[in-house]
Inverse folding.
């Protein structure tokens, strides 16, 4: 099969991936094989390609926003049949035996395997994955090309939202407004939560208002108009943590969504942290993905996607890094059947 492999890390502008022929995989007893239709482009792929995250294996096939058709099923698999539409996201597998897996918290599993990092991902024609960790998509009504971006920012946004504990009537603050925050906004709206967006980008301010945010503004020009019950911080800016905490009501929760952050300093514990919680989004779990896709058709998502051919992958990575995509999400079309 054809696949884009990364062997040596370098800036994506140097086009470090290589399109090569590799052996086509076949599923083991508890696995399925997908004929990949589309794979979304994520900034995490860029971080791995450029060395911001270490290589776990080399060569590796990147990509973890995968939608495909099941075309081969292992003998022990009952969950899928040939012809089913299925998805694969960041969580490739977990051990199933540790205290975290046994309590449905496999996102903390010490043996967690991540798609496109620990295991080969979706920038290829085929992929094998444990059937227990693949996501059934037959009942999702959205177009295949629009589902791909949901496999990472969509699921991650839903997981971050759950961590806030926000409920109907609450006020939720979003600090930063990229793709993941967009999905949080739509989920929050669906359960009657007011959303307030703080972002320096006028384009994102306009987008947040257009999508129904109660308030959206540049924090350098306009103060948050009220106290919040919960908040999610998206950029890796540790210096924002205490100011956000100061805008939370007692009993409020701040969820930090980035995978890393600059140093965090809390100077006034009594005023800004005491009585408030800080939680972090750490990987994803199956319940996050399954619950999100149970409601996704109800959210009226307007997912802007820039579609590229398989051969254009490296150009898509460059445009995504440089913020020059015509639409917020890039999706690579790998097979013709949609």
């Amino acid at each position: 099969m054809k696949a884009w492999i990364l062997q040596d890390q370098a800036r994506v502008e140097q086009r470090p991936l290589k399109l090569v022929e590799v052996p086509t995989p076949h599923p083991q007893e508890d696995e399925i094989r997908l004929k990949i239709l589309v794979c979304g482009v994520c900034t995490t792929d860029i971080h791995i390609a450029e060395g911001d995250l270490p290589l776990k294996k080399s060569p590796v096939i990147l990509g973890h926003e995968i939608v495909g058709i099941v075309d081969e099923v292992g003998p022990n698999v009952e969950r899928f049949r040939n012809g089913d539409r299925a998805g694969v996201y960041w969580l490739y597998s977990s051990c199933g035996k540790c205290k975290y897996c046994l309590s449905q918290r496999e996102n903390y599993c010490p043996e967690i395997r991540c798609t496109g990092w620990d295991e080969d991902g979706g920038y290829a024609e085929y992929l094998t994955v444990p059937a227990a960790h693949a996501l059934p998509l037959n009942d999702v009504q959205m177009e295949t090309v629009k589902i791909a971006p949901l496999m990472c920012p969509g699921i991650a946004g839903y997981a971050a939202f759950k961590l806030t504990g926000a409920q109907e009537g609450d006020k939720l603050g979003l600090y930063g407004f990229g793709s993941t925050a967009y999905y949080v906004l739509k989920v929050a709206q669906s359960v009657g939560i007011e959303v307030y967006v703080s972002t320096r980008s006028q384009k994102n301010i306009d987008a947040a208002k257009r999508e129904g945010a109660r308030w959206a503004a540049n924090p350098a020009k306009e103060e948050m108009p009220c106290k919040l019950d919960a908040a999610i911080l998206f950029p890796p800016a540790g210096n924002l943590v205490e100011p956000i905490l100061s805008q939370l009501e007692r009993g409020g929760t701040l969820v930090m969504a980035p995978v890393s952050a600059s140093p965090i300093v809390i100077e006034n514990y009594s005023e800004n942290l005491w009585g408030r919680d800080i939680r972090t989004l750490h990987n994803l779990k199956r319940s996050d993905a399954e619950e999100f896709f149970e409601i996704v058709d109800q959210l009226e998502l307007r997912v802007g996607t820039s579609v590229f051919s398989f051969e254009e992958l490296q150009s898509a990575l460059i445009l995504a890094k440089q913020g020059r995509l015509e639409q917020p999400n890039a999706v690579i079309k790998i097979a013709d059947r949609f």
Q: What stands out?
A: The longest helix spans residues 153-164. The chain is about 25% helix and 25% strand. The first strand starts at residue 2 and ends at 6.
